[in-house]
Amino acid sequence: MSGAIGVIGAGAWGTALAQVAATNGHEVRLWARDAALVAAINATHENAAYLPGVPLSPHIRATGDLAWVAEAAANLIVTPAQAMRAVLALLPANGQPLVVCSKGIEAGTHLLMSEVAHDQHPLSPVMVLSGPTFAHEVARGLPTAVTLAGADDVARAALALAIAAPHFRPYASSDVIGAEIGGAVKNVLAIACGVVDGAGLGQNARAALIARGFAEMTRFGLAKGARAETLAGMSGLGDLVLTCSSTASRNFSLGVGIGRGEAAADLLANRRTVAEGAFTAPVLLEAAQAAGVEMPITAAVCRLLDGGDVRAVVGDLLARPLKDEV
Ligand SMILES: NC(=O)c1ccc[n+]([C@@H]2O[C@H](COP(=O)([O-])OP(=O)(O)OC[C@H]3O[C@@H](n4cnc5c(N)ncnc54)[C@H](O)[C@@H]3O)[C@@H](O)[C@H]2O)c1
Ligand SMILES: O=P(O)(O)OC[C@H](O)CO
After folding, report:
1. 102 Cα: distance to centroid of ligand 2 (angstroms)
2. Complex-level ipTM beyond the 0.90 threshold
3. CA 23, 248, 303 angle in degrees (round to 5)?
4. Can you tell me the distance from the alpha carbon of 251 to that of 71, in angstroms, rounded to the nearest whole number?
5. Which amino acid positions bind substrate, per UniProt (predicted)?
6. pTM of the full predicted structure?
7. Is 186 part of the annotated catalytic residue set?
8. What is the structure's pLDDT at 2?
9. CATH number, domain 182-318, options 1.10.1040.10, 3.40.50.2000, 1.10.10.10, 2.40.10.220
C-alpha cells in the first residue's frame, strides 16, 4: 500500500497507531475533532493530552479536515465506539479501506463497529484491528501482536504490510465478528476484575472471573457467529488477560474504584479518557438476552454501574445454583 494513511481519532490509541503507521515512512494524517488538540500536536509533536511523553514522528500531521484524511490509502477508525457512526457520517466515502480499531457495541442497534462502518460506507472494505495493546506500550515501541481481521484478502494483506513493524506484528484472520466480540466483551470483564481488586477479594477470585468471563465471551461469540479459535486468540483471551491484570487499563481502574466503594456515576463523570466497558455493558446484556445467552458477570457489572452494592452483587453471583463447568 503506497500513499498516506489516515487515522481518525487522536486519543491515546489513535495517536499510538499513527506512530506505528509512520514507522514505515508513511505520511500519516491524524484527525481530531478538537482544533486546540490539532494545533498542539502539530506545534509540539506530542499529544500531551492523551499520550504524554511520547515524541511523535515527523511523518504525522494532525488535522481537523476529514476530507483530506479520506483521500488517504486507508483510514484507521479510532474514535470512542459510541461516536463512530456520527464521525463516519461526516467522512467522505471514497471506497477507501476502513480499519475499525475501537472496541464496543453500538447502543440501540446492538451493531458491532464493523457493521456500523459497513452501514455508513457500504463500498469500503472493512477490517478490524484488535488485540492486547496498551497504547503507551505500542507508542514506545514495545513488542505487540494484534489480530487484523477482514474478509477482503487483498485489502487485508496490503494493510498488514503497511503497518507491520519490528515491534508490531499483525496476524491475519477472516473472522471479523470474532475479532470484534473479544475486544468489546473483555472491557466489561475488566471492570469486573477491577472490582475484585478494589474490594480485596483476592487472586483466586480474579482468576475465576477471567475463566468464567471467557466462558461468557465464548457463549456470546459463538451465538453471534464468531469462531472459537478467534476468541481464544489475541483479540479475545489475549486482550482479556491483559486488561484484567493491570491498572494501566482504564476499564480495570474503573472497576477498582467501584470495588473500593466509590460511586460508578462519579467515577465516570470525572474521567476524561474513555472506559468503553461502561458503555458496552448494558448494550451487551441486552444483546445477550436477545440472543438467549446467559452472561451473569456482565449482568453483575451492569448492576454495579447502576449503583449496586458490591458485597450484595458479588454475593448474588456466588449464590447462583451450582452447575456444570462446561
Ligand atoms: N488506549 C488504548 O490502549 C486502546 C487500545 C486498543 C483499543 N482502544 C480503543 O480505541 C478507542 C479509542 O480509545 P482511546 O484510548 O484512543 O481513547 P482516549 O480516551 O484516549 O481518547 C478519546 C478520543 O476521542 C475523542 N472523542 C471523544 N468523543 C468524541 C466524539 N463524539 N467524536 C469524535 N471524537 C471524540 C477525544 O477527544 C479523544 O481524542 C476505544 O474504543 C478503545 O477501547 C484503546
Ligand atoms: O485501557 P483499556 O481498559 O481501555 O484497555 C486498552 C486496550 O483495549 C487494551 O488492549
Report:
1. 10
2. yes
3. 130
4. 34
5. 103, 250-251
6. 0.97
7. yes
8. 79
9. 1.10.1040.10
Domain 5-174: give its CATH architecture.
3-Layer(aba) Sandwich (3.40)
Q: Where are the domains of the chain?
A: 5-174, 182-318
Q: pLDDT tens for residues 73-112? A: 999 999 999 999 999 999 999 999 999 999 999 999 999 9
Alpha carbons 136 and 140: distance in angstroms, whole number: 6
Mean pLDDT, residues 47-58 taken together: 97
Per-residue pLDDT reduced to its tens digit, 114-147? 999 999 999 999 999 999 999 999 999 999 999 9
Query: Both ends of the chain: CA-CA distance in Å?
Result: 45
50 lines ligand 1 (CB under 6 A): yes
How big is the chain, counted in residues? 326
Element (H, E) at 30: strand 28-31
- Grid coordinates representing 124 are 469500503
- How many helices (H) does the chain have, and how many strands (E)? 16, 8
Question: 184 in ligand 2 pocket by Cβ < 6 Å?
Answer: no
Is the CB of 253 within 6 Å of ligand 2?
Answer: no
Known binding-site positions for NADPH: 13, 33, 50, 103, 135, 250, 274, 276
